[in-house]
Specification:
2 copies of one chain form a homodimer.
Chain A (H helix, E strand, L loop, with lengths): L7 H16 L6 H8 L13 H24 L6 H18 L1 H7 L2 H5 L3 H23 L8 H19 L2 H7 L4 H13 L1 H6 L21
Helix pairs in contact in A: 1-2, 1-5, 3-4, 3-5, 3-7, 4-5, 4-7, 4-8, 4-10, 7-8, 8-10
The first copy, chain A, binds a DNA duplex through helix 2.
DNA sequence: TCTCAATGTAGTCATTGACTACATCGGGCG
DNA sequence: CGCCCGATGTAGTCAATGACTACATTGAGA
């Protein structure tokens, strides 16, 4: 800690995440970060070309972490494809609440406008995983009438919008006391909508009385 | 135009909207605005206390305009409550594409964090109108099993999320050529889901078999 | 006509991002 | 073993910006 810091890059990312969680991206300043870590104001430039570069790095990490988080949440071995998809959606929203810095940096307009290959690839991997899960759910009877792309975007829009609402102080002020957990479950039930699957003709065999019974073939 | 501008306040709002539409909120500067309009750098402070005050004014105008826009789009006299709700949703997303400055200022985190009474009221009016439309749709058989609040938030999250996706360059890059209009229609069909209503017991008389017929094209 | 509130101007300061030149450290190579 | 050089951090600087203060101009109404 004398002249060289040790791992300034990592420290910058961690401190930035803490600041963003507290004050949002708008409250982040490179000079403030340097001061917090006890280095000179120019030190961060050795690790990040500019402010967007730091945010983009955080955003890329966030997409990768979100991928692991949703994978872990959706990987219950006994879940049928519909429950799997619902679990992915619930995990997405919970992740946004538990890791606000990842959420905010990942959706910052400057970052999206200046995305690099690493960020695009991390984003693309999530989309591919989601599309696979969507296909599996459709094969199990969910929204079979819709194009897979529309069905995927429908689910993605719902969870992204719900996360946005839960991060929006104006919305939070209007719905008042609502418990986020109950809201997430309730909304995701409307997105996945097992009743509609049972009402239409299911592709796999589903007994019309069982609600969440196990369709064993959960295609990873 | 010699010493006094005439209507600087209005000119500032209009120019700000144009800048935001082009470069986003991040590209907006009060001094740049003043220069564009040929006034001194301190002139804007006579009409807006600070930058957030200007954005908040734009956001409030935007919520009011969105209310009128959706009301106009959803007010087809012969539409049933489900089509009405779907029209509101489609209008929301179209509005966000046609008026990006209203959309972006209205969802800026600084603005949401520093909302004043006027903004909260404009927001609340939209929520009330949406809740009424949701109640009507539920009375007509839509998602009757869900609490009205959950059903409303489900629809709101879907359209807000879809708008966010359509404004996100990374998403746009991944879905490629997709036509926004077709996407909006396709996703809203999944949100409103007339088939599920007809499959369960409808409150109003609905003939099973017809899928998308009957509704006059909600073009315009 | 005179007054004064509304509106615009000029000057200033602190903060911030970004750039350049210089200092220090430490590992690999002669 | 010692030197060299790339990596890392420092100090200084500049332009852009938001926000503040003091002053100037206008025009409507008492």
């Amino acid at each position: 800690m004398t002249y060289h810091h040790g791992n300034l890059r990592k420290a910058l990312l961690e401190r930035a995440a803490a600041v963003i969680a507290e004050q949002g991206v708008e409250g982040l300043s490179l000079r403030g970060l340097a001061q917090d870590l006890g280095v000179s104001h120019a030190a961060p430039s050795r690790h990040f070309r500019d402010k967007v570069d730091l945010l983009r790095t955080l955003a890329t990490e966030g997409h990768e972490a979100l991928g692991r988080y949703t994978f872990a949440a959706g990987n219950q071995p006994d879940a049928d494809p519909l429950e799997h998809l619902a679990a992915l959606g619930r995990a997405y929203v919970r992740f946004s609440l538990e890791h606000p810095a990842y959420y905010r940096s990942g959706r910052h307009p400057e970052v999206a406008a200046q995305a690099d290959d690493a960020l695009k690839e991390a984003y693309g991997k999530r989309m591919e995983a989601l599309l696979r899960a969507t296909h599996a759910a459709q094969a199990a009877g969910w929204r079979q009438d819709a194009p897979a792309l529309h069905a995927m975007i429908f689910g993605l829009a719902a969870v992204r919008g719900l996360a946005a609402l839960l991060h929006d102080p104006i919305f939070r002020g209007h719905v008042g006391d609502a418990d986020p957990g109950a809201l997430i479950d309730g909304v995701m039930r409307l997105v996945i909508d097992p009743a509609a699957v049972r009402a239409s003709a299911p592709a796999e065999m589903v007994e019309p009385g069982e609600i969440t019974a196990g369709a064993p073939d959960a295609a990873s």
